[in-house]
Amino acid sequence: MKMVTPLLASVLAVSACVTASLCDAATKAKPKPKPLPTYKTSFDCATPQASAEKLICHDAQLASMDLELNRLYLLALTDEHSVPRPNKVEIDHRFWLESRNQCGAGPQARACIVRSYAERAFQLRQGSAIARTKDPSRLTEGPLAYRCAGFNALVAATFFTVEPGVVLLKWANTSITLDQVPNNYGTQYTGKDYKGNYSFWQIGDDVFLQIPGSAKMNCAAEPVG
Q: Do 114 and 156 share a structural domain?
């Protein structure tokens, strides 16, 4: 058996002390990650049931869209003249929640959730006059109809005035969700799909739309009512 001499023991003790000090310093130098902020939603963020819900709870834009969508849904349930009727609205909403939660938590999950909220807001607002009431706290507008020069189909636009804003455009068999982008001259939304890039912007009373394969089109709002 090898004996540890007093000198060797002293060296080992100093080495251990230095190693421990360095490790302790490294541990202290590395800050712990801050917990993500949690925002108010229509469901309990203390016990989210799906990956999509966890994402919504920690995203200010998605949480705002969730609260607004829930407000529209509750209004539509009180509308006996809604299309579809309130009992069908409730059934449709359960299916919609399942569809939203299927967005999951992958790289495209956030865009999927935004699109899901925009589509559902369009459905609820289109089908219920009560859901379209001018509540001062509302974060949605539309659907508004636009006639664009050289374009045969009417374009329906539903706006989410969250931060950043979102617009859902629908015409014929096409729909696209666009995100608001910084613009010093009016309000502009952009996005893309497999066909190419889209842009929709408003400068005062002037509205413009550009879709893949088309030049910029001048659009005018159709009368509502």
A: no
- Specify whether the CB–CB gap between 153 and 171 falls below 8 A: yes
Measured CA to CA, the distance from residue 14 to residue 116 in angstroms comes to 62
Mean pLDDT by 10 residues, the chain (225 residues): 50 46 55 83 92 95 98 98 96 97 91 98 97 95 96 96 97 96 94 95 94 94 75
* Threshold 0.90, pTM exceeds: no
Is residue 118 a part of any domain in this protein? yes
Rounded Cα distance between 125 and 103, Å, is 23
Helix axis angle for 60-77 and 86-101, nearest 10°, is: 160
**Closest to 143 in 3D by CA, of 123, 163, 161, 162:** 123
Contact 179, 190 (CB under 8 A): yes
Range of the domain at 165: 140-221
Measured CA to CA, the distance from residue 167 to residue 157 in angstroms comes to 6
